[in-house]
Each structure stands twice: as structure tokens, then as C-alpha cells.
Amino acid sequence: MAKASRDNKTSVTEFILLGFGDLPELQTLLFLLFLVIYIVTMAGNILIIVLVVTDQHLHTPMYYFLGNLSCLETCCSSTILPSMLASFSTETTEMSFTGCFMQLYVFASLTGVECYLLSVMSYDRYLTICKPLHYEARMNGRFCLQLAVGSWLSGFLASSIIISLASELIFCGPNKIDHFFCDFTPIVKLSCSNTCLVTLLDIVLSSVFTLPPFLLTLTSYVCIITTILRIPSTARRQKAFSTCSSHIIVVTVFYGTLMIVYMLPNTKRLRDLHKFFSLSYTVFTPMINPLIYSLRNKEVKEALRKGMWKCMSHT
Ligand SMILES: *[C@@H]1O[C@H](CO)[C@@H](O)[C@H](O)[C@H]1NC(C)=O
User: Fold this and answer.
1) At 180, phi and psi to the nearest 5?
2) 81, 89, 194, 254: which has the highest count of C-beta atoms within 10 A?
């Protein structure tokens, strides 16, 4: 019954993403910019995955999680950027109903996974710096694997519930989305059914699923920083700080932009600001993460140098 009435009423079979159509004179420039970003993101992250998998010195929990994070960033930019690049040749992009919800589902899941992975990484840093004597016992191979698998499962589980509900909504037009990808709020706004329940559930579920990892991350870094500040020797304090400052930058940028996007009211006047901050966490963060980790990290640089040396002596 519900199914039949839904098929009758749903008249929208595709969504139209307006993207950056309001900047016609910049289309070529933006296309080139995002193409370069996509290439750099893929190259940087795939390089980190290869290094983590092949180099024996990087077979530690911290680098396994970093490898997982790079894997996630690769997938993340591949769900957003290709369709965005295609839109520059046509000014707008048509996305089928299913395609749009697939993009939304994958992107929402990966954002969830990122919350969990970042908190796992912060817990790992916490153990290293605040509980070094217990590190080996707690962060063993099995636990490490459980944490990684748990992160991926929780992220996908949380968004499965909410996206499957959202896909039951009825859309009777208009179907234009003033955004560069199918994000939750703009899609729900287009629906002509009652969206109270979905919106409420979205708030409840995203709090239930993202607040614990967020609080865990925050607590870990507060403990880490207080521990570091109590180290008497300046040299040791600096060394301890350098191992986790890159993590703190990544976490701050991720949560900072996410909060701005979802807490800023999505009004017409703020639409451009919304697009800008969405760009920041969908497009720029995946590109910068590998740079932040590898340029600031001696072990990654060492692994890279050895890897290149090996490649060159082979040819
Ligand atoms: C992800 O984490 C798991 C568990 O620690 C590890 O076995 C796996 O190699 C990691 N994946 C990558 C691509 O680094």
C-alpha cells in the first residue's frame, strides 16, 4: 500500500545539481583547479597506503590507522569529485534519484567512519604519550583490527538507517539542488512529504553516533596536552608534541568545518559560505591530510626515500 502510493506520487526521477553554475566565467579555471586537487589527493593517499602496506617499519598501529584514513580519503574524494568535474563541461549535472542517494549514502558513511578513525587514532596517541607502559598490552594486533573494523562498520551502519528512511521520502518537484553534491539537508528540503521525523532522527542518530567519538577524541587530546606540558625537559616536550600536533591539526579542521556547515543556518544569503565550507571538508581535507602527516613525519619520509631508492635500483 505504502509502496504503491509512493510510486504514484514520486514524479522526480532525477535531481539537478547546480554546482558552481553561478560562476560561468570561472568554469575552466575551477575545472583545472579541481582536476589538480583530485590527482594530488589520489596520488598522495595511494602513496601512503602503499608505504604502510610495504614498509616493515610502518607496521605499527598508528600507521595502520593512517593507512585506513588514506583509504577513506581516496574513497571520499572519488564519490564527490568525478561528478563535480563532469559538471563543469555541462554547467549543471543531472543525477538520477538512485545515483544521488548512493552518493549521499557513501559520503555520509565515510564521514561517520572518519569520526571513528580519528578517535581511534587519538586513543592510540593517548596510550603512547600518557600510558606508555601499558601500550603494548592494550594495543595488540587483535584489538587494533577490531578498532579498525568497528570504525568502518559503525560508520556505514549509522548512515544506513537514516539514508534508507530519507530515500522513502516523496519528491514531487522542484528538483534543483544548489550544491555541488547530493547532501542530506538540501535533498530533504526538496521533499514534499512530512520531513519532521527524518530531520529529528538525523539529529538524534548523528548525535548518538558522533558525539562519543568526538568526546573521546577531545578527552584524549586534553590528557595528551596536559601530560606534555608537565614534561620538564624542553627537548623531550617538543618531540612529544611534534608526534601529535599533526593529528590535532587534522582533527580540528575536520570537526571545525563539519560543525560550521551543519550548524550554520542554510539560508539563501549564507549559501555561498555553505558551499565554501563544504568544499573544505569534502575536497581540501582529503588532499591535505597525507601532506600534513607525511611532510611532518620522519618515519614516513624515511620510508618514502627507501621506497624510491628501491624503485630506482630496479630500473
Ligand atoms: C587498516 O587497519 C587494519 C587493522 O589495524 C590493518 O590490518 C590494515 O592493514 C589497515 N589498512 C591499511 C590500508 O592500512
Assistant:
1) -100, 0
2) 81
| CA-to-CA separations, 124 to 129, 244, 290, 302, in angstroms, rounded | 9, 10, 18, 22
Ligand 1: does its nearest atom lie under 6 Å from the Cβ of 258?
no
Peptide bond into 213 cis (omega under 30): no
Look at residue 7 in the predicted model and tell me its pLDDT.
52
Q: Residue 34: what pLDDT?
A: 94
Q: How far is the CA of 64 from the centre of ligand 1 (A)?
A: 5
CA of 293 to the centre of ligand 1 (A): 17
- Ligand 1: does its nearest atom lie under 6 Å from the Cβ of 157? no
**Alpha-carbon torsion (207, 208, 213, 219), positive or negative:** positive
Identify the pLDDT of residue 9.
Answer: 53
| β-sheet with 176-177: strand ranges across | 93-96, 14-17, 176-177
71 Cβ below 6 A of ligand 1: yes
Domain count, the chain: 1
* Average of per-residue pLDDT values in the chain: 86
Q: Which of 79, 95, 76 is nearest to 87 (CA)?
A: 95
- Residues ≥6 apart with Cβ < 8 Å to 21: 87, 91, 92
CB neighbours of 287 closer than 8 A, spacing ≥ 6?
37, 40, 41, 44, 77
Confidence band (pLDDT; 50, 70, 90) for 90? confident
Which residues, other chains included, contact 264 with Cβ-Cβ below 8 Å and sequence gap of 6+? Answer: 270, 273, 274, 277
The CA 68 to ligand 1 mean position distance, Å, reads 6
Whether the CB-CB separation of 281 and 261 falls below 8 Å is answered with yes
Give me the residues paired with residue 15 across strands: 95
Range of the domain at 113: 2-314
CATH number for the domain including 261? 1.20.1070.10
Q: How confident is the model over 209-267, as pLDDT tens digits?
A: 888 999 999 999 999 989 888 888 888 888 878 777 888 888 888 888 888 887 777 77
